[in-house]
Amino acid sequence: MTQAIRLTMAAVLLALTTQLAIAETTTAKDDAWPGLVTDVFQDRKMTADPAIISLEAPYRAEDAAIVPIAINAAPPPGDSRYVARITVLVDNNPSPVAATFEFGPKAGVSHLETRVRVNQYTNIHAVAELSDGTLYVAEKFVKASGGCSAPALKDAAEAAANVGVMKLKQFPPKDGGSTLREAQLMVRHPQNSGMQMDQMSHTYIPPWFIDELAIHQGDDLLLKVTGGISLSEDPNLRFTYIPNGATTFNVTATDTEQKTYKGSWPVQPSGS
Amino acid sequence: MIFNALREKQRKSYIHMTNRPIDSAYQKVDGPRAVQQQKPLPRRCIAGLGNLASLALMAAMALSCSLAEAAPLTITEIAPGVFAHQGQVEPMTLGNRGNIANIGFIVGDKSVAVVDTGGSVAEAQDLLETIRSTTDKPISHVILTHMHPDHIFGSAAFLRPDVAFVGHARLNAAIEARYSYYLEANRPILGEKLVRELSQAHVTLPVADRLDIDLGGRIISLRAWPLAHTDNDLTVLDQKTGVMFTGDLVFTTHTPSIDGSIRGWLKVLDEMARMPVSKIVPGHGAIGAPWPAAMQAEQRYLNVLVDDIKAALAANKTLAETVETAGRSEAGNWLLFDDYNKRNVTTAFAELEWE
Fold first, then answer.
1. pLDDT at A154 over 90
2. Nearest to B144 by CA among B220, B228, B203
3. Which chain B residue shows the shortest CA-CA distance from A232?
4. How many CA atoms lie within 13 A of B332 on its CB side?
5. Is A154's CB within 8 Å of B343's CB?
6. If both were cysteines, with which of A207, A239, B137, B346 could A194 make a disulfide (CB 3.0 to 4.6 Å apart)?
7. In the prediction, which pLDDT does B182 show?
8. What gap in Å lies between CA B275 and CA B249, rounded to an integer?
């Protein structure tokens, strides 16, 4: 992290915060979204179709650093395409692309929940790309402020000591006979945004976050997350999937310091 | 002319303030008050400039003098030599000048210790004025119970070379990490004027575990706690009267807010319950409430949250689902419940889901 980048971030923070008072009285409509469609999606056509992708988020974020969002995405029944990728954007965050999720062809991830930071009143967008390249979009407005610069709750020493600790929860099927299963992966990581102030040196803590995380069942990819600073501290993913009969889950995560964290868990038989 | 108009306006706002229904509601739960000192005080912009130490402070005061709608603080002597002001049970606003936390001071034979400085320099200057009208003893210590803006934003009013700023050993780091965030979060709330007067509080006498301070014939015992309401909670126990300033380790009436650890907080409350305390000044809610009865509502609320969240986790509920249900049975027992409960659930869920 060069001094120049830190300074830029400080400037960004300053610019953001001076906008706070204005943001109070305006909606998110003055609008980062068209620019994001250009920059992130090269102006490709996208369709809002709640039958294919929908997004749930609280209108008012109670804790701007931990805003739960849920995405439902699946091709229409009988359609042979699959959801190849979902991009989550928090439009008005300093780094709007919160995460991109890629899915294995047979993963069947139709419901996905995670937690994001929201720095100000903003739209959140989820864009699904089906395997033939068509894009579908869902949008939600969220009121919150300060999620990116809000400091972590607990002391940095404790957070650092636990970095990379993972927990995988496996849930029994909600309706007994369903082929769908549900799991939740939790990873301890401070996800430093680069916008938090160091306690002693008066400088911004450099960004340090998980930038890639892959979950496999056996050898098959369930999902791979490419993330940024807008994913909350202690990244948390809860998702449904279609079991492939493999006996283990394998998780690999790397962060921006090139540290790698791995975890492996036996797949619990359904009904457990 | 102008001064007279000012006085008149202040007098009116004082009357208005003491007639607020919310204040009279507290009278019921307060218990007997040893002495009531509820007189309107002269404004600092009219008198008292001689006490000022620095030009910077004078400039700050000049600024705050323009806020003519400000009302003096209501101060109660809840035990001999122990004075407390009960903040409004409201969010911080320009209208209340951040006057939402309970603050106070303890008078010894030699000197005075201030406990928390309130939510703005304007409020703190009223506290200073009240102290000056109560005692001639110099202020030797300003004790900060934790990092939150409503407890520390007034600190600039007490900045003098001969005043020690006392806080948890982790307080400086905690404030440092959050201060710019606190400023920006409160700028739209308190307004530019009040925010411009602030300067960052800095502890010069850190407490790692325990510290006794002698105010002259009067020992006050400070204790720094592990992660609870925040990671820098400090209590102040007056040995002479058994009155304890708990900071935000105890809320009454006002919904508690978790900015640390719910498990840690409950543990700390268990230990605090065993301390030889007669009554408390909580961080928010009725001052002078008996101990340990005064913390039972909070303890119950936190336990309800733990139970509800653990039950939700056992039923495989998500955070978004749990936020809607956990703690709801407590809604009728607290003010500002909708402002804090869901955030508390979010924070506690993120803690408890790792167990």
1. no
2. B203
3. B350
4. 1
5. no
6. A207
7. 87
8. 14
Asked if the Cβ–Cβ distance from A199 to B346 is below 8 Å, we say no
* Preceding amide of B290 cis, omega within 30: no
- Closest to B173 (Cβ–Cβ): which among A167, A172, A200? A200
CA distance B264 to chain A (A): 11
Least Cα distance to A181 among A88, A264, A249, A251 occurs for A249
CA distance A265 to B5: 75
- Whether B34 and B293 have beta carbons less than 8 Å apart is answered as no
SS3 B347: helix
Which residues in B lie closer than 8 A to residue A24 (C-beta atoms)?
188
- Report how far residue B318's alpha carbon sits from residue B323's, in angstroms, rounded to the nearest whole number: 9
In this predicted complex, what is the ipTM?
0.81
CA distance A210 to chain B (A): 18
Domain topology for A3-266: Immunoglobulin-like (2.60.40)
Rg (alpha carbons) of chain B, rounded to whole number: 20
Contact A91, A33 (CB under 8 A): yes
Cβ distance of A155 and B170 shorter than 8 Å: yes
Cβ-defined contact of A68 to B185 (cutoff 8 Å): no
Question: Domain segments of chain A: what residues?
Answer: 3-266
Backbone CA torsion sign across A151, A157, A161, A167: negative
**Spatial separation of the C-alpha atoms in residues B132 and B16, rounded to whole Å:** 24
Residue written as tokens 């003491």?
B18
Task: Walk me through the domains of chain B, giving residue ranges and CATH numbers.
Answer: 2-292 (3.60.15.10)
Tell me the per-residue pLDDT of A101-126, one tens digit each, with 9 for 90 and over. Answer: 999 999 999 999 999 998 878 999 99
* The residue type at B3: F
